[in-house]
Amino acid sequence: MTPSHTLALTGIRVIDLTRVFAGPWCTQALADLGAEVIKIERPGEGDDSRRLGPPFFSDADTAGGAKSAFYLSANRGKKSVELDISTAEGQDIVRRLCADADVVVENYKVGTLARYGLDHAALRALNPRLVYCSITGFGQTGPMRHRPGYDAIFQAMSGLMSMTGEPDGAPGAGPQRIQLVVSDLMTGQFAVQGILAALMHRERNSGLGQYIDVALLDSQIAALSHAAMAYLVSGTAPVRHGTAAPTGAPSQRYACQDRPIMLVVGNNEQFVRLCTVLGLPGLAADPRFAANVLRVKHLKALNALLEPVLESRRAQHWIDALDTAGVPCGLINTMDEVFRLPQVVERGMVVNFPDVGHGPVPSLANPLRFSETPVRYDLPPPALGEHTHEVLSGLLGMSDEAIAALPRSR
């Protein structure tokens, strides 16, 4: 395991009052970088994501023991403390933990933590250096701020679903949901960015923490990036193109003799090489296809010429030939194929934690590769309340009797 003194965020303590995904994804990233993350969970129940399955790594019938794949994906590197923050005693313990912490991340409904005396204003009075990040569906302001929501709602409301799926008139046409919680993923990453910036500002400039308000709807709209800019520039809303790119051609899924491939031609030089590989050198000189904007305009005619050739050979034949020619392409892999790819294996994109009684716990590696402060993989996703005694005794000096008296704590 990585020695603690070599980690990028060594010495940073995070109090994690989040559950489900956007918040835990954020705090897991901070833990990967070396922060001490203390995850506060409801006694006997814990994070709702523990039961979001199947599949489960351990017993799904045991509320606190359940470890769904969903939970495992966003909770490594943390210490779990069972604590009922709806009680005065639980609130006091959280305040004591926050008095010496660097970061608080929470994703409760707007106003909830203020009722508990755990909002930014209350905790800042105890610890002016505290960076406090609130993650909600719609943000702390605006007419929808009190509404609940999950990823699919934000995919729909942000416009992402309207531009995802097969085009009108094609089989299976209609808006489609991306089968990842992309709004949560983007929000978690934006939250990490904001927290790191606030910590840097504290250390380099003010000496003080600050408040960060991050919303899933805002984050998903921001992540529309060039697609949203296309609308803002042109006034025309993006439409669904299936696997095809609206700004480049050919750039889509193509059927081969045995299975499909994804082909992306990014410039005229690559198009010339594609035509040579396919045995269609004359296409590059065809005035309908001489430039990208023309290929987009005449894509139907272009595909009528490309598709029969690509369908005449097996996918791997074209992958090998196009790769040799420097034309970007790839197989459309199933998940089992992904983790057998030599590139993926070589890059170590799966790490395993030991787990007593159930075998190794697999985890996706963090994609960051640091030369001096490598990512930490020393704590598996915790069992509910696994670190209650360690944290409350070690950080707050609570006695065994006081800890044992906490409602349903370990």
Tags for this model:
410 residues; alpha/beta; Rossmann fold; formyl-coa transferase, domain 3; 3-stranded antiparallel beta sheet; 17 helices
What does this structure look like?
The protein has 410 residues and is of the alpha/beta class. The chain has 2 domains: 4-222 and 357-404, 3-Layer(aba) Sandwich (Rossmann fold); 251-332, formyl-coa transferase, domain 3 (2-Layer Sandwich). 36% of the residues lie in helices and 12% in strands. The chain is built from 17 helices and 11 strands. The chain has helices spanning 22-32, 69-72, 88-98, 112-115, 120-126, 151-157, 182-206, 216-222, 225-234, 268-277, 292-297, 299-310, 315-325, 335-338, 342-346, 388-396, 400-404; strands at 13-17, 36-41, 78-82, 103-106, 131-136, 211-215, 251-254, 261-264, 329-331, 350-353, 361-364. The strands form 3 sheets. Strands 3-2-1-4-5-6 form a 6-stranded parallel sheet, sandwiched between helices. A 3-stranded antiparallel sheet has the order 7-8-9, with helices on one face. Strands 10-11 form a two-stranded antiparallel ribbon. Strand 10 and strand 11 form a beta hairpin. Helix 1 packs across helix 7 (182-206). The longest helix has 25 residues, at 182-206. The chain is elongated and about 80 Å long. The mean pLDDT is 94.
